[in-house]
Design brief:
The complex is a heterodimer of chains A (471) and B (414).
Chain A: E1 8-13, H1 19-31, E2 39-43, E3 53-55, H2 72-81, H3 89-100, H4 113-135, E4 138-141, E5 147-151, H5 159-169, E6 174-179, E7 182-186, E8 191-194, H6 208-219, H7 227-233, H8 248-265, H9 277-285, H10 291-294, E9 310-314, H11 319-324, H12 331-343, E10 350-354, E11 361-364, E12 367-370, H13 375-392, E13 396-400, H14 401-409, H15 415-418, E14 423-424, E15 430-434, H16 437-442, H17 445-470
Parallel strand pairs in A: 1-2, 1-3, 5-6, 9-10, 9-13, 13-15
Antiparallel strand pairs in A: 4-5, 6-7, 7-8, 11-12, 14-15
Helix pairs in contact in A: 2-4, 3-4, 12-17, 13-14
Chain B: H1 6-17, E1 51-52, E2 58-59, E3 61-65, H2 92-104, E4 110-114, H3 121-138, E5 144-148, H4 155-164, E6 167-169, H5 177-183, H6 189-212, E7 224-230, H7 237-251, E8 255-260, H8 278-293, H9 298-303, H10 317-324, E9 331-332, H11 338-342, H12 349-358, H13 366-372, H14 376-379, E10 383-384, H15 399-403
Parallel strand pairs in B: 3-4, 4-5, 5-6, 6-7, 7-8, 9-10
Antiparallel strand pairs in B: 1-2
The chains are: A alpha/beta (471), B alpha/beta (414).
Chain lengths: 471, 414
């Protein structure tokens, strides 16, 4: 009998990626008791050992009903590993199967070289399958009924393995997937396998790709460049068939410049908080972080005791204030002084300042007309107000008008809703909000009287509360 | 004013949405388009990342805002009311068409839709739901949908979102209430957590109903997630880990995402001056993993932090913990329990499973362990094997320097 001699058996596989075919052969080899070192596997295009071989037909048909055992783990790994391109895969898989006949748990031992090798092949194939699902791109071909065609170059023979994924995802769409080793065509009902294709068989573009590229570029955050992380997950070899990949080099090149510009335009210039009020005064004089700073005129610093229990914050210096370089010296300041005196608050014992440090105006002839600062400008100047607060540490803050309120609360509030009710600030101080005295100057008649009474009532409440806190 | 073109609006609204870290399309149920009118499928397990941008993040979903107009004024947000960015809006139909066109070409797994608040929270929520409704009901779309829900909206609207979406999420935004009050003055922590609680209940109830009634409607089968911004307020890593563990515990969240605060165009002056290092975000994710897959308790992760309450940046939190609790080591790979092995820095869940399976067949030597892991050099000080004992190594004072990754030259303008 031939099988008794130490002679090799050659198995010729028709389809190297067909697990069932390999399994059929392997099963018969195990039943014929042929150890792995006596089997040579061949598939089309790969020459085997020319000498001393017998073809499979010569196998002794002993014990055809002998059970062949394979663990579930082995079958799962083998089904994937067989799709790999490494020519040793048939031999390694067969020797694993051979060992499983006597040691059923052999697949659990990942420290074993063959187990690890098979597992590694399976892992690479699974990754290729996954990457095909991820990176394949369909392009629309015009016709009576839209047809979507993709060109993809997988590393391994995974086309058939992936067919079910695409039919289940795009069941109601006509599509074709072309690869260098074969193609798939789905007409909405039946799947056909076709011959190998070339890149030129696929459409070369699709108008929707412009939208996709725009999306790709916009969703990229230039402040967090991590090119290695990208390349690890999306290796360069896939890029040539992905419409968005052409943008990558420009996005990377522009990223650092874009981030630097953002940081510059932002408030990265704010470094450390000033340590004294005098320093605040010096620094605001040269602050150009918002357009108001660029206007002609000096910055106006706050004024009052450096440990005042009460801080009064207005909107911004006016014409008079800018010229004299002191807060609340113009008409509105006089109104404020009168009301403070009436409410029993000593103006010289309070620290007076503004939410915005420069005078914002438009020139009209010889006059400079006041303009309200924007929310953004108030937010920008908030840095200085916070610095003053941190140094003076007032127990109570009176904000005049909505710009001042925004500067303290960080949001725009409705004065009518919030006036007369104290707010607790983070640092434990109490915030009271009322109208700006310049509002009173713009009213006349009954409305003026009514608002003046309200303003006075607010100041009285503040005076009362101040006395309570100080006591 | 004339509307910008679709292309321009896509650019604006994708740009506006990119600060949301989550892009996951995982954890839903298995669905296929076979037998339906439309397209789309989802898998039970992991999602698919269809592309990666140079920031290392994946593109799995079309992540856009319906509009970046917003009546809120949250300082860390590029879309806040007082920001000077270009504004644009999509109609629900336009978003649905974009999603379908991208999906058909295999660019995406589905849609992640969020929005600035227009008119009112409830109005905005209705628009988001309408988009999902067009996709699911008119087009029988069976891909993945993630809807950002707005905590200020009516509770029954938020509940409707879950009927169309695979995943719903509400951002807690900042780890501390004080931070939220300061940086997001229009939001309230109580309202956010209340809404998360409602969603949690709805998800649990729907799951329970599904067990008993086959036709019970699905409610957000991929659960809910949230996001916290790291480094915009003064919260330390310890605060963040504590907050995350409370969130995981109370609302049954699938994921807490961390987003390192990054400079935004036209930023508000209230924000901190420097961005936190990106590695900090990474360390927080690692600590998140330790809690979810490695059996660490939040207190144990906090023990790994340094005196200032932050996790060390140069080494990972598991190694930091091991260096602080050296009496726990070395662990014998041939005898130790799974829980003990999972504590060894450098051993992942996969490696631990393989060690446990392999040691049934042989007594492991150091060489065998080396085959199952990435770097045996890192693990050596913490394990015993048949032919290996670390003796003095575990207790060496300079162990940290030996194991910390080599410092590389920093980029000049980094």
């Amino acid at each position: 009998m031939i099988g008794e001699q130490l002679q090799c058996v050659t198995i010729r596989l028709n389809d190297a990626a067909d697990f069932d075919e390999w399994r059929g052969h392997a099963r018969r080899l195990v039943q014929a008791d042929i150890p792995p070192d006596q089997v040579i596997w061949e598939c089309d295009g790969q020459a085997g050992d020319l000498f001393g071989t017998v073809s499979e037909n010569g196998l002794p048909q002993r014990a055809a009903d002998k059970p062949v055992r394979a663990s579930r783990a082995f079958v799962a790994i083998a089904k994937k590993a067989i799709l790999h391109s490494d020519p040793r895969r048939f031999t390694v898989l067969y020797s694993l199967l051979w060992r499983l006949q006597s040691a059923s748990g052999a697949m659990e031992d990942r420290a074993d070289a063959d187990v690890r090798q098979a597992d590694e092949w399976a892992r690479q194939v699974r990754r290729d399958i996954h990457k095909m699902r991820a990176f394949l791109r369909f392009r629309e071909v015009d016709g009576d009924e839209p047809h979507y065609v993709a060109w993809f170059e997988p590393d391994f023979a995974i086309l058939r393995e992936n067919a079910a994924f695409f039919t289940s995802r795009f069941a109601n769409m006509r599509w074709s997937i072309l690869t260098p080793k074969g193609s798939l065509h789905w007409d909405g009902e039946v799947l056909h396998e076709g011959p190998a294709a070339s890149r030129h068989d696929a459409p070369q573009g699709d108008p929707t790709e412009d939208l996709w590229r725009t999306y790709y570029a916009s969703t990229f955050n230039p402040s967090r460049l991590k090119v290695n992380a990208m390349v690890k997950e999306m290796p360069r070899r896939y890029w040539k068939n992905m419409p968005e990949a052409a943008l990558i080099s420009d996005l990377i090149a522009g990223a650092q410049a874009r981030e630097a510009a953002m940081v510059l335009a932002g408030e990265a210039q704010f470094q450390e908080r000033p340590l004294s009020l005098a320093e605040v005064g010096k620094e605001i004089a040269c602050c150009r972080r918002c357009p108001i700073g660029e206007l002609p005129g000096q910055a106006v610093m706050g004024e009052g005791p450096a440990d005042a229990p009460l801080m009064i914050i207005g909107e911004q210096p006016g014409d008079q204030e800018e010229m004299q370089g002191r807060p609340f010296v113009g008409p509105a300041g006089q109104v404020l002084s009168a009301h403070l005196a009436k409410a029993g608050i000593a103006r010289e014992q309070a620290y007076l300042t503004n939410a915005v440090k420069h005078f914002k105006f438009t020139p009209r002839g010889k006059r400079r007309l006041h303009q309200t600062p924007t929310a953004k400008e108030v937010d920008m100047c908030r840095w200085w107000v916070e610095s003053e607060r941190a140094l003076v540490k007032p127990k109570l803050i009176l904000a005049l008008g909505s710009s001042a309120a925004r500067s303290l609360l960080g949001r725009t509030v409705s004065l009518a809703a919030i006036r007369g009710r104290p707010q607790m600030l983070e640092d434990g101080s109490e915030l009271w909000i009322t109208t700006h005295p310049s509002y009173l100057l713009r009213l006349d008649g009954a409305a003026a009287q009514e608002q003046e009474a309200l303003f006075q009532a607010d100041l009285k409440a503040v005076a009362l509360r101040l006395a309570e806190i100080s006591a | 004013m004339a509307q910008p073109s679709l292309l321009e609006r896509l650019g604006i609204l994708a740009d506006a949405a990119k600060y949301d870290a989550s892009c996951a399309s995982s954890g839903s149920i298995k669905r296929s388009s076979a037998g339906g009118k439309g397209m789309g499928s989802t898998d039970k397990g992991m999602g698919i990342c269809h592309a990666y941008t140079p920031d290392g993040r994946c593109i799995s979903l079309l992540k856009i805002l319906l509009t970046n107009h917003c009546i809120f004024d949250c300082h860390y947000c590029i879309n806040r009311k007082s920001s000077n960015v270009r504004r644009a809006r999509f109609t629900p139909q336009e978003v649905a068409d974009l999603t379908l066109n991208f999906y058909r070409r295999n660019y995406i797994e589905g849609l992640f839709l969020s929005s600035g608040i227009i008119k009112s929270a409830s109005h905005t929520m209705e628009q988001l739901i309408e988009t999902a409704c067009i996709l699911r009901e008119e087009h029988d779309f069976r891909g993945y949908i993630h809807l950002k829900t707005i905590p200020e909206a009516e509770p029954d609207l938020v509940a409707r979102a879950g009927l169309f979406a695979d995943r719903v999420s509400i951002n807690v935004e900042l780890p501390t209430d004080a931070g939220l009050t300061r940086l997001a003055p229009d939001k309230s922590a109580r309202q956010i957590e209340g809404a998360m609680g409602n969603l949690g209940h709805a998800i649990a109830e729907a799951k329970d109903a599904k067990k008993r009634f086959r036709h019970a409607p699905r409610f957000a089968p991929a659960g809910q997630s949230t996001q916290m911004i790291v480094g915009a307020d003064g919260a330390s890593d310890t605060d963040i880990v504590a907050k995350a563990s409370v969130l995981y515990g109370s609302y049954d969240l699938r994921r807490v995402y961390y987003s390192a605060f990054s400079p935004i165009p036209d930023a508000s002056a209230v924000l901190p001056l420097k961005r936190p290092p990106l590695i900090r975000e990474h360390r927080l994710y690692q600590s998140d993993w330790l809690m979810r897959f490695y059996g660490f308790k939040p207190q144990e992760v906090m023990q790994a932090a340094e005196a200032d309450g932050n996790l060390p940046l140069d080494i990972d939190p598991k190694l930091a913990w091991a260096l602080k609790f050296r009496d726990y080591f070395p662990v014998d790979v041939n005898r130790a329990t799974r829980e003990q092995l999972l504590r060894v820095p450098g051993l992942g869940v996969r490696a631990v499973n393989q060690i446990i399976a392999a040691r049934r067949h042989r007594t492991l030597r150091l060489d065998d362990v080396a085959k199952l892991t990435v770097s045996v050099k890192r693990i050596r000080p913490f394990i015993c094997a048949l032919d290996w004992r670390p003796t003095m190594l575990t207790d060496r004072a300079d162990l940290r320097t030996l194991l910390a990754p080599k410092q590389t030259q920093l980029e000049l303008f980094g």
